[in-house]
Design goal:
By secondary structure, the chain is mainly β. It has a 10-stranded mixed sheet with strand order 9-10-8-7-6-5-15-37-18-35. Strands 1, 2, 3, 4, 11, 12, 13 and 14 form an 8-stranded mixed sheet that branches. The chain has a 7-stranded antiparallel sheet with strand order 17-38-41-42-45-48-47, with no helix packed on it.
Length: about 725
């Protein structure tokens, strides 16, 4: 090994970059040999595994059974016993309906809640986040994956930075909101080796391009951003269900295979995922078939299924873990709940406020992005920030801009912002009590005369209409004209929401519709923007209040400018964040929780001086009603509470808080039925006091408890 490391260091001095040839691959010791050679050493390698596209609940003959998926996860965990992190890049379940919560539960219990205490992070896919038919899909994804703020976030493990970059509004689009937050996150972590995790591929960097479905429409913007940061070394994604490694720009673009769903290999590659290792001078990524228990390049040499980068990394086994969350382009006075799922044992939190450029709060106001998907007899057209009724015949995309067409329709033409499926439940987050302008740049053909009106509606997160206002009827002239409809929403004091009661998770969304009377001639729509009234082009005097602490900055801030604040520690198991911003009324904020020791999946948590408060449960989809405490440190020789089942609230006194023994106070169970706590330990001499019964299963002590019990593990 020492000779090999010396060789890699010498190679890196000559030129850091990709090793592409088969000869170079054969020169690298097999990844599995490195795994087998480990003796618990975790100091020089970061090891991770990625699964994707479980599609739980898909009723199709090619969909593996849940038992088969559990078996594959078991094989992965057995083959790679020393993982530092597990990741899932989306399509956890197939159908996004409230009635299909059983599938969310199946994924939770089979994929996310594994049998080893390994940190697990989930990046939503299109099947669970881009169809908002009957609920706030982002909220559902956050509950499912124990996300703290939005479905985008980042986590540092052993000095390496992982970022969640889901497609929130459209399957093929990374929103401006997310891009603004990502720019800030990358700038703050430009000294760390960074991997971006997404559900969709980038156009030109995957063989499986399908317009309107596979490949992100704003790929160039993402690639340009990645290329600004040489430390950003990979884009790893799901959606295509295949194994693929594409080296370009001194980076790796990797398709993460499938743990479910359709099979493009037709049985050739099987279920599995991606195993990766990062050392101080190398990144090594291999496609792995759990179904055949082999790396794909071991039995298929037709394509590239193994990628390496000889590059100096930021790997540091002693670096404390961290978790970052936040919101891009948050609006003035906007309130949002922040659910705590990480215990930092007293670590401080860094707060960053960044400016936002421009006036529009809506996505793609100039209609620059467009895709068209052909599926057999179907022809679906996609605009990223709006939808048009009767879209197959009602408009032409003019790259940019839209030409609305006359056609035989008595109902007229409706433009919906962001688009009809999302208007009611998801976007755009906004506070009541603010004035907005709907600014329209349009031109009527044939002398004008086209008539339209504007409807602005404030919905709550549950889809209830809070307040709606309608403009007068406007008539277009035959020349290009700018029309401004001022929208006033007075403070909404009667509607139950976070603005009235901060214990509420109910927030507001602002949606806009433009209704054209039946068109006899065409209308060119060049721009539609939803803006804060009386705003400027930049952020002015941004601020953020988290709980009772306020952080603010003075002056004007552009997109590339930010200011840092420090919060001593988080209080409680949930915070409320209130944003303030003058000028254009928008600010991007990011909070980094430093010194993370525990990830709590399925329940909120609070770091106390001598204990951890766990609960209430959040992911009630889990059929086992399970909560998992994953340590972000070497756990092999530790004794700790790893899981709880049927326990809604508990207080845990762990040994890393200075206690001699582990103690659990069971404060509340979900029912009078059986509840359990599961303790991880390799010791043979543990004593359990205060419980009814307990059994040992390998490294796990499974202890039956009831409400009010205090259990001591000595």
């Amino acid at each position: 090994m020492s000779d090999r490391r010396q060789f890699l260091k010498q190679s890196a001095l000559i030129a850091a970059g990709l090793m592409l040839s088969n000869k170079a691959f054969k020169a690298v010791a097999k990844t599995v040999e490195r795994v087998a050679a480990q003796d618990g050493a975790q100091d020089d390698i970061l090891r991770g595994f990625i699964v994707s596209d479980a599609h739980c609940g898909w009723d199709n003959s090619v969909q593996p059974t849940l038992e088969m998926q559990k078996k594959m996860i078991g094989i992965i965990r057995h083959r790679f016993p020393k993982l530092d992190v597990c990741l899932d890049t989306g399509d956890a379940h197939h159908n996004n309906y409230i009635a299909n919560d059983v599938d969310r539960g199946n994924w939770s219990d089979a994929i996310m809640y594994q049998d080893e205490p390994i940190p697990f992070y989930y990046i939503p896919g299109n099947h669970e986040i881009t169809v908002a038919s009957e609920q706030d899909v982002e909220f559902a994804c956050n509950v499912l994956g124990s996300h703290e703020a939005r479905p985008y976030y980042s986590v540092d493990i052993k000095g390496v930075h992982f970022v969640s970059v889901p497609e929130l509004i459209r399957t093929v689009y990374v929103s401006r909101e997310l891009m603004d937050w990502l720019r800030l996150d990358l700038e703050l972590n430009k000294d760390k080796t960074t991997i971006l995790l997404s559900h969709n591929s980038l156009i030109g960097l995957s063989k499986n391009y399908e317009e309107g479905y596979r490949g992100v429409v704003n790929t160039q913007e993402i690639v340009d951003l990645m290329n600004q940061y040489p430390n950003c070394i990979a884009w790893m994604y799901g959606h295509n269900h295949n194994y693929e490694v594409v080296p370009k720009y001194n980076k790796l673009f990797v398709s993460n295979g499938r743990i479910g769903g359709f099979d493009p290999s037709k049985g050739k590659h099987g279920l599995g995922g991606i195993y990766f290792e990062i050392t101080k001078d190398k990144v090594d990524i291999r496609c792995y078939s759990a179904e055949f228990d082999k790396f794909v390049d071991e039995f298929d040499s037709t394509e590239l299924f193994h990628g390496t980068l000889d590059v100096r990394t930021s790997l540091d086994a002693k670096a404390a873990a961290a978790y970052s969350m936040g919101v891009g382009r948050a609006r003035n006075s906007e309130k949002s709940p922040l659910f705590h799922h990480h215990i930092s044992t007293g670590g401080q939190c860094d707060i960053y406020l960044a400016g936002v450029d421009g006036l529009a709060i809506n996505e793609d106001p100039e209609f620059k992005y467009y895709m068209r998907r052909h599926t057999g007899s179907s022809d679906n057209r996609e605009l990223m920030g709006t939808s048009v009724s009767n879209d197959k015949v009602s408009y032409e995309w003019k790259n940019p801009g839209l030409l609305l067409l006359p056609f035989d329709n008595k109902k007229g033409t409706r433009m919906s912002f962001p688009f009809a499926a999302f208007n009611k439940y998801v976007y755009y987050r906004a506070a009541a009590g603010h004035d907005y302008n709907v600014v329209m740049d349009m031109e009527g053909s044939e002398g004008g005369g086209q008539r339209f009106s504007v409807v602005a509606t404030l919905y709550d997160r549950l889809g209830a209409r809070v307040r709606s206002v309608t403009s007068k009827t406007y008539t277009l002239s035959g020349e290009r004209q700018r029309t401004v409809y001022p929208v006033n929403f007075p403070p909404e004091l009667k509607h139950n929401s976070i603005y009235v009661d901060e214990n509420s998770d109910n927030v507001f969304n602002l949606s806009v519709e433009i209704d054209f009377e039946p068109l006899q001639s065409s209308v060119m729509v060049r721009r539609v923007a939803i803006e804060m009234a009386d705003g400027g082009n930049a952020t002015v005097d941004p601020s953020i209040v988290i709980g009772k602490e306020r952080f603010s900055a003075k002056g004007s801030f552009s997109q590339n400018q930010f200011q840092k604040g420090v919060m001593a520690s988080r209080v409680g198991n949930r915070s409320v964040v209130t944003v303030g911003a003058g000028g254009n009324g928008m600010v991007t904020w990011l909070m980094r929780v430093n010194g993370v020791r525990w990830q709590v999946l399925g329940a909120q948590c609070e770091d106390k001086a001598s204990s951890m408060a766990i609960g209430p449960m959040r992911n009630l989809y889990s059929h086992r009603k399970e909560v998992v405490l994953n340590p972000l440190f070497g756990y092999e020789d530790k004794t700790f509470v790893y899981k709880m089942r049927g326990v809604n609230r508990a207080e845990i006194f762990p040994m890393d808080k200075g206690n001699a023994n582990v103690e659990v106070k069971v404060l509340e169970t979900l029912s009078a039925d059986k509840a359990e706590i599961e303790v991880w330990s390799r010791r043979d001499d543990l004593k359990v006091e205060g419980a009814g019964t307990w059994v040992r299963n390998g490294n796990k002590y499974i202890i039956s408890v009831k409400q009010g019990d205090t259990v001591a593990i000595k």
